[in-house]
Amino acid sequence: MRAIDRLRAAGRLEEGIALGPLTSYKLGGPARYLVRVGGEEDLREAYSMSAEEGLQIVALGRGSNVVVADDGFGGIVLRPGPALAHHRISDEGVVVAGSGVPLPLLARETARAGRGGLEFYTGIPGSVGGAVRMNAGCHGSETRDVLISARVFDGATATAGDRSPDDLDLSYRHSNLDDLEFVIEARFETFARPADEAEGTIREISRWRRKNQPGGTLNAGSVFKNPPGDSAGRIIDELGLKGMACGAVSVSERHGNFFVAADGATASDLHRLVGLVRARVLEETGMDLEPEVRFVGEFP
Ligand code: EPU
Fold first, then answer.
1. Among 222, 250, 252, 268, which one carries the catalytic annotation?
2. What residues flank ligand 1, with Cβ below 6 Å?
3. Whose CA is nearest to atom 21 of ligand 1?
4. pTM exceeds cut of 0.90
C-alpha cells in the first residue's frame, strides 16, 4: 500500500483545503493535500507520500510570513495539529512548546508564570515552529538567544533528533532547515522574573507595535530582511515608495517594509509589488533586498 492510501484510510489526509484563511494575508488558493501533524508517524507517512508521488512538501505554521499563490499549492502542506499545541514550564524554568503554539500566547503565559526571556515573542504573530525555522526575533532578541534545542523530524532519514541553535545554524532570520525537515517542539530557557515586570514589558512591546506597525491590516510583517546595519523600511521610505501599489496591495504609509492587502487583493498583486519595490531599491541604491516572506506555489 502506498503512503497516500494509508494516510487516506487513516483519515489523516485532507484534500483541496483553502490556504488563505491559514495565513495572515488571507490570500491564495487551496492546498492539494494537507496533513495536520499529530506526531512522528504522520510525518513519516507524509514524507513517504511526498517521495512516492513526487510532490513538493512544505511546513506551514500560523502563516504569518507566507504568501500562497492564487492557484494554490499542488503539493503537501504539513501543519502542526492540536497534539503539537501543548506547552509546559518545568520547575527549572525550561519551557517546552509544541511547534503549533502561537508565540504571543507563549510570551503571555510564560510571563504570567513569573518567568522572563520570552516577552519579545508577543511582537511576533507566528508559531514556535516558524520561530525556530527563521530564528524569529524583534526588539533586540531573537530565538537563538532563548532556544535550548528543537526536536526536528528529518524526512530524508525518517528520524527525529534534538538540535541546538548551533546545529540549526541560527543567524539573522535564518536556519539551515529545509522542506524535508519539520520542527516538532522546542525547549526554551527562561529566568525568574516577577510576573508584573514581565507583563509590563509585554505591554510596552504591544504599545510600540501599535504605534510603529500597521496593525489591523492584512500583512505578513516585514516583507524584506534588513540589509546589514540598515532597515529595509527606512530605505523604502526614503525612496518615496510608501503608497506604491499593485492592484489592491500597497506599501504601508506607516511602515515601508509592510505591504498591506485591501479587499480584492490577489497574491499575484503582492508578488508583483515585491518585485517592483525590489527593482527600484536595486536601481537607486545598488542594494538587492532579500524577501523575508516566503512565496508558496507558482507565481507568474
Ligand atoms: N523607518 C523609517 N521609515 C519607515 C520604517 C522605518 O524611517 O517607513 C526607520 C525607523 O524610524 C527606525 C528604523 O527605520 O529608525 C528601523 O525601523 P523599525 O524600528 O520599525 O524596525 P525594522 O528594522 O523595520 C525590525 C524587524 C521587525 C521587528 C522590528 C522591531 C526585520 C526585517 N524587521 O524592523 O520584524 O518587529 O525590527 O524589533 O528585521 C518581521 O520580521 O516581520 C518584523 C516585523
1. 222
2. 123, 138-139, 212, 221-222, 225-226, 231-234, 237, 255-257, 292
3. 231
4. yes
Long-range contacts at 8-12 (CB < 8 A, ≥ 24 apart): 12/36, 12/38, 12/42, 12/45
Indicate the burial class of 68 (C-beta count within 10 angstroms; 0-12, 13-18, 19 or more). Answer: buried
Closest Cα to atom 7, ligand 1: which residue? 234
pLDDT tens-place values along the chain, 300 residues long: 999 999 999 999 999 999 999 999 999 999 999 999 999 999 999 999 999 999 999 999 999 999 999 999 999 999 999 999 999 999 999 999 999 999 999 999 999 999 999 999 999 999 999 999 999 999 999 999 999 999 999 999 999 999 999 999 999 999 999 999 999 999 999 999 999 999 999 999 999 999 999 988 999 999 999 999 999 999 999 999 999 999 999 999 999 999 999 999 999 999 999 999 999 999 999 999 999 999 999 998
- Cα of 149 vs centre of ligand 1, distance in Å, is 28
Cell numbers standing for residue 197: 515586570
Distance CA 260, CA 252 (A): 6
Angle between helix axes 195-212 and 103-112 (nearest 10 degrees) is: 150
Tell me which residue of 21, 9, 13 sits closest to 78, measured CA to CA.
13
